[in-house]
């Protein structure tokens, strides 16, 4: 965990600290016990009324831009330490694209501590968006992510369902000729997967997991010698499959 400390350039000054109240003077003179209570009360009063002197941020900073986070939080800290709206600071941090969640707390005498959990990208989502590992859609805000991440698509609200299905299906096809590169769910409920070799696997409205046995069994055996020529495999049949073939390259036509 990286700790970033951003000073607000507002150290406490003696002239900013209010004088002890009459109540505190009375309590200090009433005995050791009351004096200790008064000292604690005065400490929190003085520090609470002083301005925030430091912002401490804990984050990995792999995807989050520290300067962007600073710009989002600094305007909310231009007040007395005890008057800082911690919920507002938390909302401002959590609103940043790459922030999954945030926690904010005060640390006496004049520090606001913010802990930020970054999103972990899991897949590309159509429209230039990403999905994190929880299936939450978000805008990458110009950050470059690995092109090797799977490419998923589906109707609004289906993000987690599509990511879960892809994860399960990819695990079953890993290490085979049908290793997955992407998965799409259309508005009608039809599932279509794409392999890393560009073969389209059409599952229709059936559960894609139920088509794995047909794909890895009869289909794989029948197409073993012709796999480079396969454009798509249709697995919507109850007891079989059909195949679509790639168009021959222009230079090979007539050979």
From TrEMBL:
HAMAP family (UniProt xref): FtsQ_subfam
Gene3D superfamilies tied to this protein: Cell division protein FtsQ/DivIB, membrane protein fhac
Quaternary state and interactors: Part of a complex composed of FtsB, FtsL and FtsQ.
Record-linked Pfam families: FtsQ_DivIB_C, POTRA_1
Keywords, comma-separated and alphabetical: Cell cycle, Cell division, Cell inner membrane, Cell membrane, Membrane, Transmembrane, Transmembrane helix
Annotated protein name in UniProt: Cell division protein FtsQ
Family, as annotated: Belongs to the FtsQ/DivIB family. FtsQ subfamily.
Species in which this protein is naturally found: Sinimarinibacterium thermocellulolyticum
Subcellular location per the Swiss-Prot or TrEMBL entry: Cell inner membrane; Membrane
InterPro entries from the UniProt entry: Cell_div_FtsQ/DivIB_C, FtsQ, FtsQ_C_sf, POTRA, POTRA_FtsQ_type
Gene that produces this protein: ftsQ
Domain POTRA: start-end pairs: 50-119
Keyword Cell membrane attached: yes
Highest taxon in the source lineage: Bacteria
Record's keyword annotation contains DNA damage: no
Its membrane topology: Single-pass type II membrane protein
GO biological process terms held by the UniProt record: cell division
Main function: Essential cell division protein. May link together the upstream cell division proteins, which are predominantly cytoplasmic, with the downstream cell division proteins, which are predominantly periplasmic. May control correct divisome assembly.
Species classification: Bacteria, Pseudomonadati, Pseudomonadota, Gammaproteobacteria, Nevskiales
């Amino acid at each position: 965990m990286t700790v970033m400390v951003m000073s607000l350039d507002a150290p406490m000054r003696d002239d900013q600290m209010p004088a002890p109240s009459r109540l505190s003077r009375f309590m200090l003179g009433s005995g050791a016990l009351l004096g200790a209570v008064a000292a604690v009360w005065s400490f929190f009063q003085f520090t609470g009324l002083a301005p925030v002197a430091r912002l401490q941020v804990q984050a990995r900073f792999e995807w989050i831009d520290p300067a962007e986070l600073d710009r989002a939080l600094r305007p909310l800290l231009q007040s007395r330490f005890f008057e800082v709206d911690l919920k507002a600071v938390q909302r401002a941090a959590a609103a940043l694209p790459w922030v999954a969640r945030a926690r904010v707390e005060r640390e006496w005498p004049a520090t606001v501590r913010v802990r930020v959990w970054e999103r972990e990208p899991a897949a590309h989502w159509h429209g230039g968006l990403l999905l994190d590992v929880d299936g939450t859609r978000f805008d990458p805000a110009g950050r470059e992510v690995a092109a090797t991440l799977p490419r998923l698509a589906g109707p609004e609200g289906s993000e987690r369902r599509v990511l879960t299905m892809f994860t399960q299906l990819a695990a079953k096809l890993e290490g085979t000729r049908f290793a997955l590169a992407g998965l799409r769910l259309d508005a009608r409920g039809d599932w279509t997967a794409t392999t890393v070799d560009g073969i389209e696997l059409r599952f229709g409205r059936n559960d894609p997991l139920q088509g794995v046995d047909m794909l890895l069994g009869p289909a794989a055996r029948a197409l073993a010698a012709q796999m480079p020529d396969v454009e798509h495999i249709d697995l919507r049949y109850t007891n079989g499959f059909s195949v679509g073939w790639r168009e021959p390259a222009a230079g090979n036509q007539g050979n």
